[in-house]
Design brief:
The chain is mostly beta strands. Helix content is 13%, strand content 39%. Helix 2 runs antiparallel to helix 3. The longest helix has 17 residues. The protein is globular, with a radius of gyration of 18 Å. It starts with 5 loop residues before the first helix and ends with a strand.
Amino acid sequence: MSSKTFNQILDGVSKQGDHYEAQIPRSWMQGRASFGGLVTALGVEAMQQALYQGEGQQAGKKLPLRALQVLFVGPVGEQPIRIETTKLRQGKNVTSMRADLIQDGNVGCTVMACFGASRVSELSLEAKAMPIVADPESLKPFHYVEGKTPSFTQFFDMRWAEGDSPFTGCKERTHGIWTCFHEKGPASIAHLIAIADIPPPIGLSMLTTPTAGSSLTWSLEFLGDEWQANADGWWYVRTELAQSSQGYGQQTYSIWTPDGKPVALGRQVMTVFG
């Protein structure tokens, strides 16, 4: 299957009877599984279509995505993906949904989403400001090398401002990465989801011998929808390894737009096979 851009793959999500279908090309793989940020974005795209385009749905009343809970059950590969969406509850302000991404009759990923309208509140507390770090143009780029680095990394630029790349023996528990899409254009919530999943497990950077690692669970919380940015601008993603033992590690995320606006917080449980 020929290589496609992120936007082209999202545009390929189509309704087929009682479900949706999509497909991810080999160029977006990481080992035997597809890039988790793209897999999750496909689930969200299907839920948004089900929520806003179906008969009797909330047409014209788009609710911002507030939170995601993702369970990576097994590898999602190149085969066609069947996406089944379920509306768990539709309230006055919040709608909760689930998307199951299925291949060969098996669930590969489950995405839970909460879409919620803005509310009037006396509370207004800013998230932490972006740390002061070196400009991305002054930092060494992470180069995609066919057969050695994950295939999906060819679609992004990555530069470590804090910590270092995998298998360098870096012992720092806090990492910060400037990253951007090569594909130009405005960023959507799907692009933000992908950007949030770009940082590899910090535990891999602490090792010096290449080994595999993967995501087990992932949560993302979005800090409102009042932001505009380009996908090819420099986003900053800061991660912190809370702990790692028995082959599992937990790390937290903070994401800022190219103009320094905080837009998402996250947490991920990862496995490291080494």
